[in-house]
Amino acid sequence: MSQSSPVQPPLVTPPALPPLAKLDQLESQSVYILREAYRSFDRLCMLWSMGKDSTVLLWLARKAFFGHVPLPLVHIDTGFEIPEALTYRDQLARELNLTLIVGRNDAALAARTTYVHTREDFPEGSDKRLGRKQCCSLLRTAGLKQTLDGSGPRWKLNLQSNVLELSDDHEPWSGVIVGARADEEGSRSKERYFSPRDKHNQWDVGDQPPEFWNQFKTDYAPGTHVRIHPLLDWNELDIWEYIKREQIPLISLYFDRGEGSRYRSLGCWPCQEPIASRASTIDQIIHELQSGTLKDIAERSGRLQDHEGRAGLEELRRDGYM
After folding, report:
1. Less CB within 10 Å around the terminal CB: N or C of the chain?
2. Could you give the 3-state DSSP secondary structure of residue 2?
3. Total structural domains in the chain?
4. Which range of residues forms the domain containing residue 52?
5. pTM as predicted
């Protein structure tokens, strides 16, 4: 008798998994980039302005590292920060047990030659663009450079005493995580997820590495530092919907407090203006964005230094601006 072949059970195709919702896709990609950065750079930090984008980035870092943020958060203090933002910064650092480093260009502040110090010398109707550009260059760009390369002072928040203490760490950071979005303004749309700066902290817009299939270049010559952009594919609406979903606490200046205005983007207090808006809740801000109420109003329109146009801001970014 011939031996019959065993009967094979029919193949069962498993049901297709439902596609991830957009916020889940964005979160997953950002978490992947954060983990890649942490794996690739021994000296890594994250910039934190206390604004909505960089605070979403902080929340994503907590997701990536299971509730812990294993790298320092760096705030560049221009000396003209909104007081509420500084209170929020220190409180959140204590609550989340963060390593908070503050950098500041004390020499420029002591010289009192920036636009913020001398703006009263500009007559009404005069061209203030050069003054604002110089101010950003000194207080933000130069302040950031000297903080990242260790040539300037670094202040570390003592979470017990809530006092900033001078740090003895002057080693440069080779990787810098930033909360920039491609849709925010023109020059940011030219960035990569992993975007190199040379030893002078300058950005060559025309020499960006290709990034295909989640393959990122992270190996560079000594002296190079790399900006990492986990939020590059997010837009403003995504940010607010994620803030709502994750219940992320924000500074109250983003909301109308009964005056018919609020801030859409935060900067130094002398150089920013609110927009006309009665949105006092996250849902109302989301509705403004979905309805097109803000369609013709640039997100950073309240940042006076951004009024100079894309070319001016891109030039600042080439020199190391955030």
Report:
1. N
2. coil
3. 1
4. 22-235+309-318
5. 0.82
